[in-house]
Amino acid sequence: MNSILSKFLNEFNSSRSYTENYTGDNMSKDEALKILGLNPEASQNEINKAYQNLMKLVHPDKGGSEYFAQKLNAARDRLLKR
Fold first, then answer.
1. Using CA atoms, how far apart are residues 68 and 12, in angstroms rounded to an integer?
2. In whole angstroms, what is the distance from residue 39 CA to residue 47 CA?
3. C-alpha atoms less than 13 angstroms from C-alpha of 33 in its C-beta half-sphere
4. pLDDT in tens, 16-68
């Protein structure tokens, strides 16, 4: 899981401003899958599990950042079509 987090941090840390607010509507399905480290056939359970595991690492209350938490929320929402 740490390699997925490293890729996530490297890819998105330098690509966008932390002050931007992202929603699932602005995110492609491919981007959402990459963020959560999933394949296109991932089940709802796998999406939620990947989301929960990564959120434990990047949640602002745990020393992470609001930006990464927003990206995870958007990725989950995009894949679950919320």
1. 8
2. 10
3. 9
4. 444 344 444 578 999 999 999 999 999 999 999 999 999 999 898 888 889 89
Q: Please report which confidence band the pLDDT of residue 8 belongs to, taking 50, 70 and 90 as the band edges.
A: low
**Rounded Cα–Cα distance for residues 55 and 57 (Å):** 5
More confident call, 71 vs 23: 71
* Other beta carbons within 10 Å of 39: 7
Q: Cβ(1)–Cβ(41) under 8 Å?
A: no
Measuring CA to CA, which residue among 54, 50, 52, 80 is closest to residue 65? 54
Are 24 and 78 in contact, with CB atoms under 8 Å apart? yes
Per the CB < 8 A criterion, the answer to whether 12 and 32 are in contact is no
Query: CA 40 to CA 60: how far, in whole Å?
Result: 28
